[in-house]
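User: structure tokens for Flagellar hook-associated protein 1, please.
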Amino acid sequence: MASTFAGLSIANRGLTAAQVGLTVTTNNMSNIDTDGYSRQVVSQTSIGPAAVYSSSLVGNGVEVTSVDRVNSFRLNQKYWQENSSASELEVTSNYMEKIEDVFGTTDSSDISEALDTFEAELETLADDPTNESIRKIVLSYAKSFCDTLNTAAEDLESIRDQLNTEVNTAVEEINSYASQIAELNRQISTASASGASTNELEDQRDVIVDKLSGLVGISVTEADDSTYTITVDGVTLVKGDEANELECYTVTDSDSDSYGMYGIRWAESGKDFDSGDSGSLTGYLQMRDGSTADSKGVVYYMNQLDKFAQTFAQAFNEGVTVTSDSGTETTYSGHVDGVGIDDDETTGIRFFTYDDVSSADFVDSGSDLEEAYSNITAANISVSKDIQDDTTKIAASSTAGEESNTDVLDDLIDICSDVNISGNSTATEMYNLIVATVAGDSASAETAYSSKSATATYINTSRTSVSGVSSDEETVNLTTYQSAYAASASMVSAWSEIYDTTISMVDD
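Assistant: Done. Predicted tokens:
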């Protein structure tokens, strides 16, 4: 037989359950714009008779068993994976755009324009080879061409320095996020053991894991106590309330692509850190140190610019021999073959050297000419000290004493743009090929990032549709719980009247 006050007790439980529902709904609505918040739902169950041997035909009402957050760990894992990949591609795309700005386009490039201007002034000199004023202008434009290459190299080096700074910043952020996740793991474990709600703590942790996944590729597993274990390329970064820290150090191995830059290692073990194949940190390292055709970064494009500077300087100084399709060879004289004003014999002077050294010092800088030219880079190419000190040494004639002879100067003009100086490429074509490569790589990076970003956004939208708060849904819940609360309140009133009447009858 049911308890005398069973009805009032059941109605009271209904009030309590409805009140919890209203509170949860209010909490959801107030956090509708909170980043990372997962909507919460009330789990409740009916209460049966007090004992299996009870003769009561009616249960004891409702009981709230838990308030759970709605969240898909599977979708979280997919998002973290895609977010890591998208973040790496975002870094590549952004920095390729910076590199592209340095090289310009095939239609508009500071280096191409400087070369064209230098060539144009050589043509002016060919019309009046003894004019000292024009010779000084030629020197000015030659120095401008070198300065433009120097500036481009400095800009690329500056981009590399930015990337190096980003590496250090990313490591600091990874350590910070790992420490925060470990602390939240501790709080979640403690709260879970005491039976307290961990919903908000888990939301906070997932927001931080989102940020961490943007920095480095991670693998996340969840333990029975709801704590996370996070690994990077198979090495544990976070487990329970412990975090494994990273540290940066300066690479001193001169054979390493990252020489002079930051290396990364695990602080405790001292072993080198492998960022895996995704995450913005991987993007920073790749763009900073990539030096091969399969791993293109700033170093690769710097090497291409250096090769252009070396090849052009050597062709202009030493001359080139071109073989036609029919096998006919044509030789174009270099500056070293020409004669300056009032010289009695071939000057033997190199027009381009590096760091303003003289032609003689340049030749002595290597065991042979090839080694000497390997010392030239885009960062240090210059007009030789001989030419800077005396513009009469700018070669024009092929024969001493023939001041109106411009045979060598004409060949030098052809070498600037018309003669193949590298394979089947003229100087202009050689540089434009570098520009086209950079532009193509930049476009590919942007396309890849857009595609991967769209995938990550789609997955994020999917998980938001699961865990996000819907104002329409919560409005329906609010109405439902209000009605339930009102009904339970009415039942309390009704039972109160019944008990008052019953008690009065007993008293009478």
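User: Anything notable?

Assistant: The mean pLDDT is 92.
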